[in-house]
Design goal:
The complex is a heterodimer of chains A (about 160) and B (about 600). Chain A is α+β, with helices and mostly antiparallel strands and about 160 residues long. Chain A has 3 helices and 7 strands. The chains are: A alpha+beta (about 160), B mainly beta (about 600).
Chain lengths: ~160, ~600
């Protein structure tokens, strides 16, 4: 399924076009991002710039704004209304205590716990790898250990536009 | 009367409002019968002013009370409600062997409510509609002493399954579950030449839909009632104790306390694979050993392709719970002493699973979970030049949608209710203790205290993979000489991932109102008598939960994508050998990808 994107959306255009689009991307982000201390403009990295397409752009954000194609037809109302950082809603009445997207241990919870791997995950993406080789004697062989991890959390990738 | 005929008659009554429809002589066709759903909707109304002492309302659920299955000794014990479950094991105990080929294999596919539609020149519909809705109303003036409302849930109370012993203990509600176990032992005698191959190949698919249409394609799970569980306690009702579980696992009291089993699994609305390969041998000379777990767990995964129309891959209104306590401006308050509201959550209370001992303890709600374990205990390993190989290849997908449309494409998880997610209304009510868990793990009191296990996994609304390759875990191990040892975990966990491609129109990939909890404590409500815990996408452990627990891997996961890969080798000396340990992990949580011909929308909205 992820490979379902057809050739219509392959990268086109030269470096100048990419720079121009990136400029519009940054400008659009700056214009649309909430001007609060919590909302920072995300500088597009080389990795993201590499995936910018001629007819649109790719945006990586950790909150709920999307950027469609920059062709003058942007309609952001649908998305921006009601968007709340950091991506979840919890409304509590008076006298209630609550946690969201959090880990809370009270009392003696997990005290004297004995574990090699202990993960308490709330609204998270966690790739966790561990390799252990214990050699009690000599080693004249080869030991190769590797961990390759990818974690993607609350990420939005958007391509849009008309050719 | 056959069950099928009975179900057909029930549908006839529902549609017409009279019995006339089934009085005719025309039999229902197979196609019509295939559409029959008797387990879909449960409505309970308590309108009497007389007290209700003890009422259990279970829809597609597993509930064990009192001393049910206490002290059971079993090889495999499965309690299943609307689930597809495979449980298989290969056990071989031998002695010294030479040039033998030992092969143990479990190949299991569990599919629960899986639909596949293909239309050559028209629309294609692969749908589960109105399968999971429960509504309970306790009317004005009702008096409820103890009421337990379970919707697509597992609930164990009292001393249920306490002191149970066995290989596998599985309680499953509306899930797809595979359990595979291979055990080989040479009784510490040496093995020479030949090979040992242990394999578990598992596919668990729960409520997946695939639609391939020329015009529009619909791959959907859809509750038209906009909620899956609604509980109403009207004004002046008196409720002493009430549990409301929606797509949840709840273990109370002493249930499963002191259980000693290989795998202790409680799963609600989930896709779960459990695979284990265990081998114990003496010295190994020139023997190739392969231990492999390949598992795919998919829960609520939809795939729609429309070559010339719109594609809809959606989960709509699958995870919404409404609880109403009292209603102003009425004049007499509802009284609720103790209420636990769990939505897509795991909650363990009291002494549940205390002192349990198992290789795997797993409680999963609304999740896709793979647990793979390879253990080889051996003496000296010499001249195993091809390989000693331990591999876990795991994919867990939870609430993912893939839409590929000729015009528009919609891949989305969407709760459309005015109050989506978990909505608790305390309006003119006196509330004692109230726990509100939405997509959460909550352990209270002494739950899982002193539990001893290789893996403990509590998972709510998550995609979780756990892969372990252990060479000489229980022993110090001998030398490895002139051999190749390979350990690898390859894991992909995707939770609430949407992918939409529209060739000529709009592409929408979104999670909408999936992480919403609203607890309205109106000014007319008295909360001063007890404690209210409100958890959303959270892990909360209280009191002595998991105290003194002992585990190699312990995971409490709420609304997450988690991979845990572990490779361990213990040896004496290594001579002229190659040891390779690899973990390749991908975790994706609440992420969307949209590629549109015109507009593209990738949204997490709350």
């Amino acid at each position: 399924m992820e490979g379902a994107y057809g050739p219509l959306h392959l990268t086109k255009g030269g470096e100048m076009k990419r720079v121009a689009i990136s400029f519009w991307a940054l400008l659009a982000l700056w214009l649309m991002a909430p001007q609060t201390s919590d909302a920072e403009i995300h500088r597009l990295s080389d990795e993201y710039l590499d995936s910018v397409h001629a007819q649109g752009l790719v945006v990586y954000l950790d909150y709920n704004i999307f950027v469609p194609n920059i062709d003058g037809t942007i309609d952001l109302n649908q998305v921006l209304s009601g968007a709340i950082l950091p991506g979840a809603t919890q409304t509590l009445g008076d006298g209630a205590n609550g946690i969201q997207n959090g880990v809370q241990l009270n009392g003696n919870a997990q005290s004297n716990l004995n574990s090699l791997v202990n993960l308490n995950a709330a609204n998270s993406a966690i790739p966790f790898g561990i390799n252990i080789t214990v050699i009690n004697g000599d080693n004249t062989g080869t030991v190769n250990q590797s961990n390759t991890s990818t974690a993607i959390l609350n990420s939005l990738l958007v391509w849009g536009g008309t050719l | 009367m056959t069950l099928r005929k009975a179900l057909a008659l029930a549908i006839g009554i529902t549609i017409t409002g009279t019995g006339a429809a089934f009085a005719g002589s025309t039999p229902l066709s197979d196609i019509e019968l295939d559409r029959v759903s008797a387990q879909g909707i449960q409505t309970i109304r308590n309108e009497s002013l007389n007290p209700v002492n003890d009422q259990n309302n279970n829809l597609d659920s597993v509930q064990l009370n009192d001393f049910a299955q206490e002290s059971s000794t079993v090889e495999g014990l499965v309690n299943s409600a609307v689930s597809a479950v495979n449980a298989s094991a290969n056990l071989l105990y031998g002695d010294e062997t030479t040039s033998s080929a030992v092969t143990q294999e479990n190949t299991n596919t569990a599919e629960n409510h899986v639909n596949d539609a293909f239309a050559v020149d028209n629309d294609a519909y692969a749908q589960n509609i109105n399968k999971q809705t429960q509504a309970v109303t306790n009317s004005q003036g009702s008096s409820i002493d103890d009421q337990e409302n379970n919707n697509n849930s597992v609930q164990l109370n009292d001393d249920a399954q306490r002191f149970s012993e066995g290989v596998s203990l599985i309680n499953s509600a509306f899930s797809a579950v595979n359990f595979g176990l291979n055990v080989y032992s040479s009784d510490s005698e040496s093995i020479t030449g030949g090979s040992v191959t242990q394999t578990n190949t598992q596919n668990a698919f729960n409520m997946n839909n695939t639609a391939d249409g020329f015009e529009d394609a619909y791959a959907q799970n859809f509750e038209q009632s906009i909620f899956t569980q609604q509980i109403s306690n009207a004004q002046s009702s008196i409720v002493t104790y009430q549990d409301n579980n929606n797509n949840s696992v709840q273990v109370n009291d002493q249930a499963q306390q002191n259980a000693v089993v290989d795998s202790l699994v409680n799963t609600a609305k989930s896709a779960v694979n459990i695979g284990a390969n265990l081998a114990t041998v003496g010295d190994v000379t020139g023997t190739d050993i392969y231990q492999t777990n390949t598992a795919v767990a998919e829960n609520h995964v939809n795939d729609a392709f429309a070559s010339d129309g719109n594609a809809y891959a959606e989960n709509l209104n699958k995870q919404t719970q409404h609880v109403f306590n009292g209603t102003s401006p009425d004049t007499v308050a509802a009284s609720i002493e103790d209420q636990e509201n769990n939505n897509n959550s795991v909650q363990l209370n009291d002494y549940a699973q205390q002192n349990a001992s198992a290789v795997l303890v797993e409680n999963s709600a609304g999740s896709a979970v793979n647990a793979g374990l390879n253990v080889l205990n051996a003496g000296d390993i010499t001249n195993s030049q091809n390989t000693i190989s331990q591999t876990n290849d795991q994919t867990a997908e939870n609430y993912n949608n893939y839409a590929d449309g000729g015009t528009d494409a919609h891949a989305r998880n969407w709760e459309t209710a005015t109050f989506p997610g978990q909505f608790i209304s305390n309006d003119l009510a006196v509330i004692g203790d109230q726990d509100n868990n939405n997509n959460s793990v909550q352990l209270n009191d002494y739950a899982q205290q002193n539990v001893t296990a290789d893996k403990v996994v509590n998972s709510a609304n998550s995609a979780v993979n756990v892969g372990q390759n252990l060479l000489n875990w229980d022993t110090t191990g001998g030398d490895i000489t002139n051999s190749v040892v390979h350990q690898e975990n390859t894991q992909t966990a995707k939770n609430h991932y949407n992918d939409a491609f529209a060739f000529d129109g709009e592409a929408t990939a979104k999670n909408k109102f999936k992480q919403t909890q609203i607890v309205n404590n109106f000014f007319t409500t008295d909360l001063s008598q007890g404690t209210q815990d409100n958890n959303m996408n959270s892990v909360q452990l209280n009191d002595n939960a998991q105290q003194y627990a002992s585990a190699v891997v312990l995971i409490n996961s709420a609304g997450s994508a988690v991979n845990a890969g572990l490779n361990v080798i213990r040896v004496g000396s290594i001579g002229t050998s190659c040891i390779t340990q690899t973990n390749t992990n991908t975790a994706v949580n609440f992420s969307n990808r949209a590629n549109g011909g015109t507009f593209a929308y990738a949204i997490n909205r709350n």
